[in-house]
Amino acid sequence: MTNKVLIADDHVVVREGLKLLIETNENYRTIGEAGHGAEAIQLVNDLEPDIILMDLYMPVMSGMEAIRKLSVTHPKLPIIILTTYNEDQLLAEGFALGAKGYLLKDTSLQSLFHSMDTAMNGETLIGEDMMKRIRDYQGKRQHIKEKVQLSRMEIIILQAVARGTTSKDIAFDMGVSERTIKSRLTAIFNKLGVDSRTEAVAVAIESGLIHLNYNKL
Fold first, then answer.
1. For residues 32 and 47, what is the distance between their CA atoms, to the nearest angstrom?
2. Inter-axis angle of helices 197-206 and 88-96, nearest 10
3. pLDDT value at position 84?
4. pTM, entire model
5. How far apart are CA 195 and CA 190, in angstroms?
6. Which residues pair with 54 in a beta bridge?
7. Nearest-CA neighbor of 28 among 52, 56, 55?
8. What percentage of the chain reaches a pLDDT higher than 90?
9. Which helix (H) or strand (E) holds 7?
10. Gap between the Cα atoms of 125 and 196, Å rounded
11. Which of 126, 137, 171 is CA-nearest to residue 153?
């Protein structure tokens, strides 16, 4: 029996590349492609795939939000996280929601099919090193939830960053200088113990400090 695969990624090139790779294995065939999380959920209902390869950072609805919803409506559907970012937050949240594997987009063909085979067998592919990273991450995030407080301005800035707004545009919207925004971001990074905008957003969302949406300020 050939297993039906749904690919969810907002980059056409990535989807096409995955389709070509999947065609090399007679045990799998691609039955659908989604460009964002909401479309993935719709295709799950329409096409009934056996497994999903899910990107996380997509427009309209993120892959993580789609996984969260599917964990309720289709709890037995195997989902493998496929992403460019090797982040502990993604590991922890994805596995907590029931993801069966986690692959970077530059993974080998052997690793791809090994993860898919493992997921189809109802098992989760997670190594000892990965488990340690998840435990360490969860401890760090618990500390953030209990100790970190952001000002209203810092929350507004982080929410804008989460939508992909540049520092220059945030400054314009808030009526302050770009230098002020950059200074505030540095303060936010220090509070959260991170080094980048991407990680700051991920930590803030996971810790409940901000909620991701796509509306303008």
1. 8
2. 30
3. 77
4. 0.62
5. 8
6. 8, 81
7. 52
8. 43
9. strand 3-8
10. 28
11. 171
- Residue 100, judged by CB atoms within 10 A of its CB (0-12, 13-18, 19+), counts as buried
As a whole number of angstroms, the distance between CA 126 and CA 129 comes to: 8
Determine contact, residues 3/27, Cβ cutoff 8 Å: yes
Q: What is the pLDDT of residues 133-185, one digit of tens each?
A: 666 666 666 666 667 788 899 999 998 988 888 999 999 999 999 999 999 99
- Model pLDDT, residue 132: 63
* pLDDT range class, residue 46, cuts 50, 70, 90: very high
Tell me the angle at which helices 37-47 and 63-73 cross, rounded to the nearest 10 degrees. 30
90, 113, 117: which is closest to 102 by C-alpha?
A: 90
Which candidate, 129, 182, 14, places its Cα nearest to that of 137? 129
CA 69 to chain centre: 13
- Spell out the residues 6+ positions from residue 158 whose beta carbon is closer than 8 angstroms to its own: 150, 188, 200, 201, 204, 209, 210
Answer yes or no: are the C-beta atoms of 198 and 162 closer than 8 Å.
Answer: no
